[in-house]
Amino acid sequence: MVDLEWKAAKSVTADMSGTASPKLSTAAAATTAKSSPETQPSSNSSHDPVRVTDHDLSPASSSSCEAYDHYFRIPELAKLWSSRDFPNWHNEPIIKPALQALEITFRFVSLVLSDPRPYANQREWTRRLESLATSQVEIVALLCEDGEDDPATRGTAPVVDLSTETGVLGRDGSSAEVWKMDDGRGLAHRAVSRTSEGSLLPRLATWHKSEAVASRMMFAIERAMRRCPYTLGLGEPNLEGKPNLEYDLVCKPSDLHSLKRTSADLRRLCNNNYEDHALFTTHQILESWIFASRELLKRISNRIDRREFDKASSDCWLLDRTWKLLAEIFDLNLLMDPDDFLRLKNQVSIKAVTESESFCFRSLGLIELTKSSMDLKHRVPAILSVEVDPRGGPRIQEAAMKLYRGHRIEDKDKVHLLQAMQAIEASLKRFYFSYRQSVGIAMGSLEANGNRPVMISGDSSQSISRIFSEPTYFPSLDAAKTFLGDFWQCELRGGSNANGAEDCRGRMKVVN
């Protein structure tokens, strides 16, 4: 979470003076009248607004990234995220890491409620984690629903049908009988609900400290999965007796929890500083969702290529949600005890360098996710079915205005997709703004600015603030909406004079 230089738990030695630092390169790309970021990077100009291009965004030095990966055990997690156990289930690359992030959240609840420090804010931690779990479950439910709505993927999820004729409980597995009084045909029906044996959530429901929060999480799962033909099987009531997802086979909870921080690790790395648990677990949840989001972006790209704009827009709105979720995950760091966290900072040799060497740039997954999200701007011409004018004409802007103004049924999916893509931009910028504020709150604004005064950091072309303060990625769409709004203002006024009426008629020709 922090703008810091990590010392890896293993021996990672490097001469930092001879390695490339994480940065947004000083080469500024600006918008000009004859090019737009939706088509190509714009030329440099000292008078134009600074813009981050795909080539400006680069990760930290290889040693810093390696230390980050080792500290949070990202390579081992990546093997679990990317394993393919169900070849016919096309949603597995997205849903699996999402479920694993949810399972790590259950472990986080256990860690928080086991915290021996009397000054820890357990009440707020519990509330935040419950809210985070609910947000994750909602996204997982939407992913499952979309998979069942798509004829190409319907029925491919690995589920076990629990309906029986006798309602007899099996001897293996943790099960509870559910009686369904009416199956819609006036006949009594019985079903058996099976609960995951590997997940921590059912165990949390049996512990007096976590019983209440676990129960609320289970009801959140029941509510979120209501529209899906199956449920997760984590102890939720399953009042409809729906099939259960093979959660233990998909998520592999035992393998996942083997990657947690052990007591021996805690003693060796930071002399039993309990905040290491929070930092470690938070970033494992974060990286799991980053991986899922990258897989979602791949699916968005494929669906745009196939001109499946309805499905692509649905995925884009999901990606908008995941960017907001990443910000919610980062905010957990605000609950760490200031003294314990700053002690941890020195125990693991965390070292602030400059603001451009932000800790977030040590996550290779986050860098790739950011780049891919920015790259959506290049899809606008294809969505609008226009070619870029080599002379710099406003073809894209005019096509967008006609699309917005037309209200044609066959074009509604394009409008929804373009709106969702702009929503992703807003969520991405909101994430980086939130990140910078979180760093300042956790360690002080001077540390967040790379040990430079704010007025100096604010002038730096390599500042992280460039990401959230740069101009829009979609200037043609922005101009189209501005022009369309101006047209309606003029149209509704009706033109106060002859020149005004003529101007309105001129605008009508462009819009129509």
Structural summary, described in words:
By secondary structure, the chain is mostly helical. It has 21 helices and 5 strands. It has a 3-stranded antiparallel beta sheet, with no helix packed on it. Strand 3 and strand 4 form a beta hairpin. Helix 4 runs parallel beside helix 6, helix 11 packs parallel to helix 16 and helix 20 packs across helix 21. The two termini are 49 Å apart. The N terminus is likely disordered. GO terms for molecular function: heme binding; metal ion binding. It comes from Stephania yunnanensis. This is Nematode resistance protein-like HSPRO2. One of its GO terms (biological process) is L-tryptophan catabolic process to kynurenine.
Main beta sheet: 3 strands, antiparallel
The gyration radius over C-alpha positions equals 26 Å
Strand % is under 5%
Overall outline: globular
* Rounded mean pLDDT score: 82
Helical amount: 40-55%
Oligomer: single chain
Stretches where pLDDT falls below 50 for ≥5 residues? 1-35, 41-50, 165-171, 454-462
For the record, give the distance between the C-alpha atoms at the N and C termini, rounded to a whole number.
49 Å
Numbering strands along the chain, what is their spatial order in the largest sheet?
Answer: 2-4-3
Pfam family, one: Hs1pro-1_C
GO molecular function, one term: heme binding
Organism: Stephania yunnanensis
Protein name: Nematode resistance protein-like HSPRO2
Layout of strands and helices, then pairs:
Blueprint lengths: L61 H11 L1 H9 L9 H22 L8 H28 L9 E2 L2 E2 L9 E7 L8 E7 L5 H4 L6 H14 L19 E2 L1 H5 L1 H5 L5 H8 L4 H31 L3 H22 L7 H10 L16 H11 L5 H5 L10 H12 L5 H32 L1 H4 L5 H4 L7 H5 L5 H19 L4 H14 L1
Antiparallel strand pairs: 1-5, 2-4, 3-4
